[in-house]
Amino acid sequence: MKKVIGKLLLTLLLCACLFACSSNEDNAFDAGSMSSGAGGTVGGASEPAGGASEPVGGASEPVGGAGGTAGAATKGPIPARCTGDGSTVALIGDGYIALSRKIPSLLTQYSGQTYRDYSEGGTLIEAVRQQAQKAYSEGPTETLIMTGGGNDAILNTNCLISGLSNETCKSDVDKALSVLSRIFEEAETAGVKEIIFFYYPHIIYMPQFLNVLDDYAIPIAQKACESRTKLDCTFIDTRDDFGGDNSGQYLILDGINPNAEGSEIIANLVYKVMQDNCANGLEMGGKEEVTPVGGSGGQTAGQGGQAGAGTGGIAGSSGAGGVAGSAGMAGTGTGGTGGTGTSGTGGASGTGASGTGGDGGTIGPQDPACLSSLTTCKTRSTDACNAFIVPTATAFDTQVKDGITLELGPYGAIMEPNVGIGFEVAIALNDNDAACLVFANTTFMEPPALNADLMNSTGVNLRLHTVYRPACMKDGEKYPVLIWGNGTCAKPEGYGALLRYIASYGYFVFAANSRYVGFNNAMIYSLNFAFAANDDPSSPYYQRLDTAKVGAMGHSQGCTATVVAGADDRIKAVILFNMNSSASKTFLAMSGEMDISGQNAMQMASALATSRVPGAYMFFHKIPRTGNFSGHLTLMRQPERVAPAAVGWWQYILSGDTTARELFVGDNCGLCGQDADFQYDQKDLP
Length: 686
Known about the structure:
Structural class: alpha/beta
Radius of gyration: 30 Å
Distance between the termini: 49 Å
Helix content: 25-40%
């Protein structure tokens, strides 16, 4: 059967007894229980059944005898999920499913069943194909719910330059669509009975010709779906339901992926197809339909019963946040004995009265004169720092005020902007500061002066990179490499406090200056530059980098770009700030209340539980409520909350620090038991 789902009725009534068929002893499917009550009594008792030879009942009865028993209610095999077996359903695709996991969560809520979710954010269609293959290898798969193919245009440099007018772009999109056809063909071979495939709506991110690619791909993808002959494939066109070119109300900050309301639209469209296929059976392409056997009903039909309507339970209130404990004092390192040339041993970790103990003392740099020369710096300062003043503002202030002073680590830090000549990002896109400030002010509604500081509305070369590195380095010592991705419209110095803090513990952070790292492979350009600089005798970074210890991290759009960049074999692990909840490499995901992504702790826990790689998550409470989506800016407005865990993660995962490991692993781990401040959990960390 070939079906296209159009505009969703907003008043869709979810039938509470959808899977009542599972209670029938003979497992036959009772279509009536899906949507209405049983029909009333029909015809006279003298003609109770009316066999096939008596299609209308006795003529002497004015009402007519009851119709004979109908043939099988289905026109094809009943999906196992219709009888209560959700294990035969697999979700595959990209960030439209994986980003918030809200679509699978809603489908579970609607059906009462849990489906296998293999989706990953930022994936291309070939990776979606591999997800399907993995699903088949792990158990019988009758139903595929999927999306995919949009990223092959959106993340394609050739397409960003000139869209369909670029023959290379058109060829790349055509190749992606051919992979989509292979997914369908392999599904038939694997015994899949139905595919429910939804495609991207129009997005609001510039350049707008990406929507021309969308319109080009949709009819081809739809035809590939509907031409199947051995399975039932339903194509869902989401453009109208998202408002066409006015889709912004249903998209998150990146202008591409669905927000909570957009995810609900998709989940309802998908679930409507699932309901229809359960109620009517699957009309399998190329198979003979089963014809009902019984006689026709009498002249007077019984009245159908009224459908039941379930009422959702009331959500529980969240608990009040506890008062944070005072931070412990950091231990002081003891210097080594003079004359031997050995470094001193670090002091023991301090213990807070009611909070977490401070960091232990560390071995100091060989150049104490360097440390003594360091100063306290602010945003955009290129001075070497041992402390950083985090800008802040209270509600209704128009001026940015000096906030807290964040003490940096034992190496100090320095920021070096506009580096990486020879490794320029191919597409700078735009540096429209005015538009970005309007975007920030209307989206977050923080004090405008604070937004200006956080968005760092000063000129940098968007094709180049900014490096945050240790200010006082040791001779002969090499430092791990990290690459950074900004959120939409932001630049690296919007995260200056966090990136300096990480660098001050002995890390090189290479940050793309791009405001749109999800669209120009900017993070990989940064990584390529770092590796080249390490091998270049003329570079100040020559032989300073430990290229065996490489990580990636990013915020918002940069978080999604981090997931994509994480596929690079050089990258060992990632940190995901405020967007994705899992990745293909060992990950730490951070989010919190009032996040524009709409994530909650339950969704992050679910993403962790279903992850195929080790990972951990932190979900923050006690968000400053000065504007919309304040939780999305935690690492910018309150870097002191996220910075210690970020440093500890890299010390543990990249450097194998056993003390740092205790922060994340064990019954009494350092991040455990602090639910008033944040929720934490981990899975399979070594």
